[in-house]
Structure to design on (275 residues):
């Protein structure tokens, strides 16, 4: 080996050592995709995780639970965020591609029906909500409100929030074709906040002063009623990995389930599964 090649080889080795630094590993990437409900938890946890692990870059995007699980099956994400469990047909497709989705519960949530703060309605039953979303109750007057047509705002069908709503409120009935479909919790909040006669539904962590959360069957959505299942539209939130997680994915999920990670869950307005 001549002197020039030797010095070049030494330079490459030194550069690699400097990249590894004091943390014991080279720069690494962790990709997380899926649920817009889980998104604020993933983003806040991702920022904290990168501060604790400067050599790791965490890339996070939404798109919906269905998109996240599809990305896991297609092997284009390390972690899939989901606000629902995996469907049998998704599990079958995953198996055909050699993917073994493993669910990790990371929080609890309540799906809260919301109206504009100007709406005097405070409480609706599951049956009333079902009839509204089927288009069989069309005027707030039928519910003790103003004599105004109800604007129905719903999530799109790729959303895990929509699917939970479909199961627990609609009981598999179809949403009225007049419904305004939104791609995220934030978009639902915005639509309802700007329309006095709209109704929508969002994850508990998205509830703010621009909209009013309704009771369901006389029960308020709180961390306590969500985690006990007393609130009629409660659910766990998940992160899925391909089999038992390893490397940065394992470290991230362990961090999220730690005391510090669960404090982030609470700060984002959701319900920790661990105290």
């Amino acid at each position: 080996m001549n002197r020039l090649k030797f010095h070049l080889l030494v330079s490459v080795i030194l550069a690699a050592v400097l990249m590894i630094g004091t943390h014991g590993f080279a720069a690494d990437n962790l990709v997380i995709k899926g649920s817009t409900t889980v998104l604020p938890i993933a983003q806040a946890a991702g920022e904290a995780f990168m501060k604790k692990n400067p050599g790791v870059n965490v890339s996070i995007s939404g798109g919906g639970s269905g998109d996240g699980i599809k990305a896991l099956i297609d092997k284009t994400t390390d972690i899939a965020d989901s606000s629902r469990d995996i469907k049998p047909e998704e599990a079958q497709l995953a198996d055909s591609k050699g993917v073994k989705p493993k669910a990790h519960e990371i929080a609890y949530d309540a799906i809260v029906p919301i109206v504009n703060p100007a709406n005097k309605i405070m409480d609706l039953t599951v049956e009333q909500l079902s009839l509204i979303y089927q288009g069989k109750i069309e005027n707030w007057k039928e519910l003790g409100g103003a004599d105004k047509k109800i604007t129905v705002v719903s999530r799109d069908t790729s959303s895990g929030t929509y699917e939970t709503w479909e199961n627990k409120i609609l009981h598999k009935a179809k949403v009225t074709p007049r419904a305004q479909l939104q791609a995220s919790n934030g978009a639902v909040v915005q639509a309802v906040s700007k329309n006095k006669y709209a109704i929508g539904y969002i994850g508990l962590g998205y509830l703010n002063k621009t909209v009013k959360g309704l009771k369901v069957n006389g029960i308020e959505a709180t961390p306590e009623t969500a985690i006990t299942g007393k609130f009629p539209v409660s659910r766990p939130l998940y992160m899925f990995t391909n089999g038992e997680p390893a490397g940065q994915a394992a470290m991230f999920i362990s961090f999220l389930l730690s005391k510090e990670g669960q404090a982030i869950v609470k700060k984002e307005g959701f319900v920790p599964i661990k105290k």
Notes: The chain has two domains: 3-108+236-267, 109-234. The first helix runs from residue 3 to 20.
